[in-house]
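Project standup — Tuesday

K.O.: blocked on the structure for the chain from last sprint. Re-posting the sequence here as requested.
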Amino acid sequence: MTDTTHRNRPESPDKESSPLVKRGGGAPATRGRTTIADGVVEKIAGMATRDVVGVHAMGSGFSRTFGAVRDRVPGGGKSVTRGVKAEVGESQTALDLEIVVDYGVSISDVARDVRENVVAAVERMTGLEVVEVNIAVSDVKLPDEADDEDQPEPRLQ
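H.V.: unblocked you, prediction finished:
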């Protein structure tokens, strides 16, 4: 026996005026392209790296010294991207980080924590796949060393 019951459905209007049909070829979220600049990924990675306990600073000694001078110039501001280099493709990114660690911390643990934090932050915020995070530890901050970035403010401005 065949079921011949008919449901009470209104006739669908023509396709042009139907609110269910999307114009322009697909869902709005898939129309167009989004590009993310290297500098955007570098800022995200720099902030995520600085959040890790045991990371004292970022960049080589020269870049930190140069950055400390630049930070004192009006409008110079702190460089979040110091010690970060990103290469961004269409769907993937690779990062190189240069860090200074505090004396007494496990460098391998700090490097692991940095990788985890950077990968999570970059992938969450950009949607890019992080294929590698290379970390170069360029120095260890000893407890009795003067800090390049914490020099006293000049008396005259």
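K.O.: great, moving the ticket to review. The two ends are 96 Å apart (CA to CA). The mean pLDDT is 80.
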